[in-house]
Amino acid sequence: MSLFSPNPGAERPVLTTCKLGVGQMLSWGSAFYLPAILAGAMGGSLGVPASRVFAAFSLALLVMAFTGPVAGRLIDRWGGRPVLMATNLLFALGLVLLSRVQTAGQLFAAWLLLGLAMGAGLYEAAFATAVRLYGKEARGVIVGITLFGGFASTVSWPITTWLLQSVGWRDACLVWACVQLLVLLPLHATLPRAQPRQAIEPAPALDDATRASGPPPVVALRGQLGTLALLALTFASVWFIGTSMMSHLPRLLAVSGATATAAVAAAALVGPAQVAGRIADYAFLRRAHPLWSARIAVMGYPLAALVLVGFGAAGGWGYAVAFGLGNGIMTVVIGTLPLAMFGAQGYGQRQGLLMVPARMAQASAPFLFGLALERWHLGALWVLVAAASTAATALWCLRPKQA
């Protein structure tokens, strides 16, 4: 039996999907989506501009990039249950420290710790956990996880806003720390245990040296480097686009001529559109190779830009929906395409490595796209079109022969 075949004693995938999905929805909300609501209040309390808070957040995103491969390798070896439980403790500790910061230096230190937690506890870790439990049958679980995750901002932003207004930003961080300790830690403790490596026959495709050393190390990826490079380029491009929009979409729509109210209302459509895109992908393309889903989805970005350029403020709603549909599918593809191209063996480590460039692009996106928007206004859309074109070119250079 292969190491990454479904565990005979594992619970039904739908139950695991719900546990991992709820965990992702609340973990994204308790860290990644906090600065959008709390940055101004944090900066005002500490006597620093909000940009300093976002700089600390960017540091956390960089830490995420280099934490992912280590966390993925641990999940490959031990399963996701202990790793995700450890990240709940890291999240809680980071949030408690964040609630107590008094200086900019302490702010950066708290976000550094939260970066470690995010790097080992967000999507890539959940995807690797699913693959470790269910092998190549994990695609449906990955889709389900992203359906829950698509509502992270929809759930967390109103809650965090209410907490900010009711108890202040420091106690808001403490409430989210309690969510990690009292809700998510017990939830992740009920995840199925991955089979011990000693109890499983090694996958036959691996040589004796690799069997002895565990999941494939980086040097075992030779012969796959071209495909890995194309996937890494694709993921970096789409994460740059996605993070740029999550940081600046209301402002971009306002630049197109929309009122502040209309811009926020249109931006709110992104979350439901992402979920709709993921449902449509699973309903119509689940039997197709994920490469086709990726090729279709990446066209949503330039299509959205054309709508906004062509119709101005009136096209804001269409822009948000087109972007959300494409971005929603691409989030699923980030988990399913490497699985289809390379298989389940060593998935966690490989996924972590693939996402290093994406996380670095993500860290730079708020600043770079903000600068482009400030200088070129609606012309900043060409930056997104260029990134989408890069991703599309890389995807058409790939071939699904490894599937």
From TrEMBL:
Ranges of residues in domain Major facilitator superfamily (MFS) profile: 16-403
Gene3D superfamilies the record matches: MFS general substrate transporter like domains
UniProt entry keywords in alphabetical sequence: Cell membrane, Membrane, Transmembrane, Transmembrane helix
Transmembrane segments: 20-41, 53-71, 83-102, 108-134, 141-163, 225-246, 252-271, 292-311, 317-340, 379-398
Pfam families (UniProt xref): MFS_1
Annotated localization: Cell membrane
SUPFAM superfamilies in alphabetical order: MFS general substrate transporter
Membrane association type: Multi-pass membrane protein
PANTHER family assigned to the protein according to its UniProt record, in alphabetical order: CHLORAMPHENICOL EFFLUX PUMP RV0191, PURINE EFFLUX PUMP PBUE
Protein name: MFS family arabinose efflux permease
Organism of provenance: Comamonas odontotermitis
